[in-house]
Amino acid sequence: MEGLLQQQKYDEAIQCMDNRLALIDQLAQLAKECQLQRQVVAEFAAKLSIQEEKLQALTISYHNIVFKKLVQVGKGNKAGQAYNLNSKEF
After folding, report:
1. Could you tell me the pLDDT band of residue 76, with boundaries at 50, 70 and 90?
2. What angle do CA 45, 26, 35 make, to 5 degrees?
3. The organism sits in which domain of life (predicted)?
């Protein structure tokens, strides 16, 4: 995902993030259904949580870069308002 963000392939990065969330959801479901897998899933979930924090920080960084570029090309006011409105989760 970091590579996609560096290459400014934001749609692909969003799809990757959505796929990660779906995977995490499936792992949670597996842990509920299979007692034997709970420990393995819990360990994996802990690793994913750490990765998720790093990815959120990286995403915020790219969010700021994009906004600054919009301001530089003179479209920051309108586009920036729309961008901020659509990215409240960050």
Report:
1. low
2. 70
3. Bacteria
Question: How many angstroms separate the CA atoms of 9 and 13, rounded?
Answer: 6
Q: Per-residue pLDDT tens for 24-50?
A: 888 888 888 887 878 888 888 788 878
In whole angstroms, what is the distance from residue 19 CA to residue 1 CA? Answer: 11
Q: What is the 3-state secondary structure (H, E, C) of the chain?
A: CHHHHHCCCHHHHHHHHHHHHHHHHHHHHHHHHCHHHHHHHHHHHHHHHHHHHHHHHHHHHHHHHHHHHHHHCCCHHHHHHHHHHHCCCC
